């Protein structure tokens, strides 16, 4: 007779097997892990324009943070045009090595947007007119070209720029903040603030964004890259009272972790080091899709573990969600029911968000996949009306999933000037008899030329200021 084991027993067996396998690999080192490399640039001390206080500190902080996470770091402080180009060239050559698992470029300093193109400003830039920016600035597309020709499957660009436009007095077409860029396949582009907005330089030694990102990387070793940037966004929103909203665009298809297997325990820690290895192994086995029971088991076994805080937050999120019917098998209960797939193409994802906003009565305009001001206002209105906690007001998978959970009209119905709201419908205004309705929604009486009497007793009328009589 054949017996079928319950799904949760099978999953537990898989977890235990994975733990044993990870321990075996850990004992032989990390020979199978690819190299991670990073280029860090921080420009503070400009020669011809306003200097910035914190980019140098931000670059040093990010270099240390990534170094602690296992990246090989190249660092450039106060780079002039030639230095920045040379570092890009050398870094591009490094990325062509087939052993590279991930490449990251971080920039802090002045950045400007001109005619839809983003430029990073070297410290020796001398610009009298916006037409010179191509010659004196570094086009962000140069960074992306370096990434696009690399062998690494994961590429990351972090721009803590757009702190202000130092050339606004002489630039005609310069636009506030940086412009959005499509991410090439396998690339994540992160901005310190949303497109068209200005990021803060900070007053405490580091910019709010870099401080938050560094903290998120260090405190979330078992979290995928998307979760790390979300945590940084939440911290920046809290610190800046929602005035600065970090933003990302990504075409990464797999999972990437800043710490490959979480922080490794100290080899000299003895029994504590062994316990740390079990901690990392257990969390690695369950981190992608943990159940409530697995999270509880982890916290019971490792109450002060490396991932205890992350596990507690995930457990709270799962427990706060409406429970699926108890009659479902555990494997069924963990699966989303009738959940439509989230488009992987950024334009299709944007269009899907626009469709949902229109369905909920929030006018996002034509669902064309282009995220403009009207779509942004629609999402902001929905967030306020539904009291949603959204980490970003740009289209992403998390926003789409939240919108799909809502039903009915969320945004209040608004009527144009010629209509009034009655019984939750826009009804054309009516005017008293003899009056007409203007395009501004006002009732008026159409004036008719009245006959005038002249001294000769005929009918008179006025045209172009002259009076004519029969």
UniProtKB/TrEMBL annotation:
UniProt keyword Membrane present: yes
The keyword Membrane is annotated on this UniProt entry: yes
GO BP annotation list: proteolysis
Record Gene3D superfamilies: 3.40.50.1460
Record-annotated Caspase family p20 domain positions: 34-166
Region (Disordered): 324-347
Stretches that traverse the bilayer: 12-33
Database matches in InterPro entries: Caspase-like_dom_sf, Caspase-related_regulators, Pept_C14_caspase, Pept_C14_p20, Pept_C14A
UniProt keyword annotations, A-Z: Membrane, Transmembrane, Transmembrane helix
Pfam families membership: Peptidase_C14 (PF00656)
MF (Gene Ontology): cysteine-type endopeptidase activity
Protein name: Caspase family p20 domain-containing protein
Species per Swiss-Prot/TrEMBL record: Roseibium aggregatum
